[in-house]
Write a structure and sequence with these properties.
- Helix content is 25%, strand content 31%.
- The protein contains seven helices and 17 strands.
- The strands form four sheets. The protein has a six-stranded antiparallel barrel. A five-stranded parallel β-sheet has the order 3-2-1-4-7, with helices on both faces. A four-stranded mixed β-sheet has the order 9-8-11-10, with no helix packed on it.
- The longest helix has 21 residues.
- It is globular, with a radius of gyration of 21 Å.
- The N and C termini lie far apart (50 Å).
- The relative contact order is 0.13.
Length: 332
């Protein structure tokens, strides 16, 4: 019987994934990555209910190096990073491969809503597709990957968990960053001893108020400024070099027809310029079609019509139909 190492978080998705993998004839081993915050007990309970052996691995050092420090540094550069995209290839999936090697497993698996077949990753069900989060995986990670939730919607997974009598069937989804459970990333950055100073909001070239520090804002933001401007405004740019948050009263100021991405990870290396679907954030919106021109380790992305707020620090993921081609980080 082939073995598979599953990332077991203690939530409903990974619990149902464990059941499906075992039903397919695989011997399932669970791996929980301990980042120093509560959660291990839920993973132990899920593993016990499924009769799955569980390994708990200390991930704090790897998380700090590959996720937490880059996450904080990105905000200080005026960017808006996605920590899951940083974590998946460098921490989570690397740990799964290491554990698979230790126990002699052929496969690794997670509860992501996407499809993995024959060394390729594809979009999952439109209602809950998470393929975007996997765009920076390595070839070794993709080649060993199983994603048993691919055919399912989240409502169907919860119904199956209830039918199976799993204790996590009604556990709420986790919507926060795993290492910032209260969701307040600005306060988390400040608790690390980093407090960017207040500076100017700039509207039409004039200072119109004081911001609380650039780490509180993101391009395209239109509320939660902490000060009134008498009209709706949008963050059009964040300038760490001048400590300014630039605003516009016209939403058109945050739409772009092109942008550059750096450090592209290609799952399917192109032979030259390609026309493909481009996702610029994790959302359910249909993919706009763009032209992607490789440029060194990055690429230039152009659209026939503007797209809203391609945000520095976020990831642009590229698709050929449903197949995930890769992704890189959006720059100013």
């Amino acid at each position: 019987m082939d073995k598979v190492v599953l990332g077991l978080s203690g939530g409903v998705d990974s619990a149902v994934a464990a059941h499906l993998l075992r039903e397919s004839g695989l011997e399932v081993y669970g791996l929980y990555l301990d980042n120093g915050l509560p959660g291990a007990d839920a993973a132990r309970e899920a593993a016990a209910s499924l009769s799955v052996p569980l390994t708990i691995a200390d991930s704090r050092e790897a998380m700090e190096q590959y996720v937490c420090t880059p996450f904080a540094e990105a905000y200080l550069r005026g960017e808006t990073p996605n920590p899951c995209i940083l974590c998946n290839p460098a921490v989570k999936f690397r740990a799964l491969l290491d554990e698979a090697k230790r126990v002699g497993a052929k496969y690794i698996a997670t509860g992501h809503y996407a499809r993995a077949e024959n060394g390729a990753v594809y979009r999952g069900q439109p209602e809950n597709d998470q393929s975007y989060m996997l765009c920076r995986l390595t070839p070794d990670e993709v080649n060993a990957l199983l994603l048993p939730l691919a055919p399912y919607k989240k409502t169907e997974v919860r119904a199956l968990a209830e039918e199976l009598g799993l204790p996590v069937a009604h556990k709420p989804d986790s919507m926060d960053i795993c290492f910032i459970p209260d969701g307040d990333y600005a306060a988390w950055i400040e608790r690390r001893g980093i407090t960017p100073p207040p500076g100017d909001f700039v509207l039409d070239g004039k200072a119109v108020g004081k911001h609380r520090g650039i780490h509180h804002y993101t391009v395209g933001q239109r509320r939660h400024f902490g000060v009134g401007f008498g009209k709706r405004v949008y963050v059009s740019d964040i300038c760490p070099e001048t400590n300014e948050v630039r605003l516009s009263s016209d939403d058109a100021a945050v739409w772009r027809e092109s942008f550059r991405v750096r450090d592209v990870n290609w799952l399917v290396p192109p032979e030259g310029e390609i026309v493909c679907g481009v996702r610029i954030r994790h959302s359910r919106r249909e993919l706009p079609t763009g032209t992607v021109t490789p440029d060194g380790d990055g690429a230039i992305v152009r659209f026939p019509a503007p797209v809203r707020a391609p945000t520095p620090g976020q990831t642009a993921a590229f698709y050929d139909g449903d197949r995930l081609l890769g992704g890189g980080f959006i720059v100013k």
